[in-house]
Design brief:
This protein has 8 helices and 9 strands. The chain has about 270 residues and is α/β, with parallel strands linked by helices. The two termini are about 45 Å apart.
């Protein structure tokens, strides 16, 4: 079975449609944050084209948890949302500012409350969430439907730019933490960084009360690794420089300060 969730009035061939609004006459009337009518591991594909931005955080995480639950191993999820990183770049450059603001806030909500935008995502945010839910093999996907997954924003008088972030991923394993427990923790601290909440929950669930290797975000370890490389390069550069003039003598102390900072950074690993 293949699901097309948040279907509105689209009826793509080969898909079972799911929507919260009965006026759209979907195959299944349901809130995608709780699709209990759909059995675990019963779907080959879930397509969510510009629906997650209409759900408040962290309930949108709950919806993605449902995508993971209903998908079979090796099942594929295809998500499209407004690309907030691209829209912010356009906004800061002054390009089509009114149109961009309308996309960010979802002006369609003036007519239909379900069309209001309640949250946004960047590529990194989506990848962090899906990775935690057991997904991998990330890729871009192109929609064959005339829906918002092919969305464009005007750029100048006669140009346009893609504004849809289309991320595809394959279910390669089980979630690294219990999605329902993580959802509750996110509800308790919705402003906290997602990866920090995941690490906190893993620490809490560790049998001996100690943080295991998985509890540290791989992205955090990678960032710390890059910081170490940068610090080493700066030390090599400073130690290779000729002696500083008297008025800049303080710079001679920088290698030792960097070494101390490196030792502190290594101690955290």
């Amino acid at each position: 079975m293949k699901l097309y969730v948040g279907s509105r009035d689209y009826k793509p061939d080969g898909y079972v449609t799911v929507d919260i609004d009965p006026a759209n006459k979907p195959d299944i009337v349901a809130d995608i944050t709780d699709m209990a009518v759909i059995a675990d591991g019963s779907c080959d594909e879930v397509v969510a084209g510009h629906v997650l931005e209409h759900i408040e955080w962290p309930d949108s995480f709950g919806a993605m948890g449902e995508f993971s639950r209903v998908l079979k191993p090796s099942g594929v999820v295809k998500i499209a949302v407004p690309d907030m990183a691209a829209l912010m770049r356009m906004l800061l450059s002054g390009e089509s500012a009114f149109h961009v603001m309308g996309l960010i806030y979802g002006l369609g909500g003036r007519v239909n409350t379900f069309e209001r935008h309640r949250y946004g995502f960047t590529p990194g945010m989506l990848a962090d969430i899906l990775e935690t839910l057991g997904f991998g093999e990330f890729d871009w996907w192109n929609s064959s439907l005339a829906d918002a997954s092919n969305g464009w924003a005007p750029r100048g008088l006669d140009e346009r730019i893609g504004m849809s972030l289309n991320m595809q991923a394959v279910k390669i394993g089980a979630p690294s933490v219990d999605p329902k427990a993580l959802h509750q923790e996110l509800l308790r601290t919705p402003m906290d960084d997602f990866t920090s909440v995941v690490a906190r929950l893993r620490l809490r669930e560790a049998p001996d009360g100690k943080q295991d290797g998985r509890a540290v975000s791989p992205k955090l370890l990678q960032l710390m690794h890059f910081q170490l490389i940068e610090a080493r390069q700066r030390i090599r550069y400073l130690e290779g420089r000729p002696p500083a003039p008297p008025e800049q003598a303080g710079i001679r102390d920088e290698p030792s300060r960097l070494r101390s900072a490196m030792r502190r950074l290594i101690a955290r690993l």
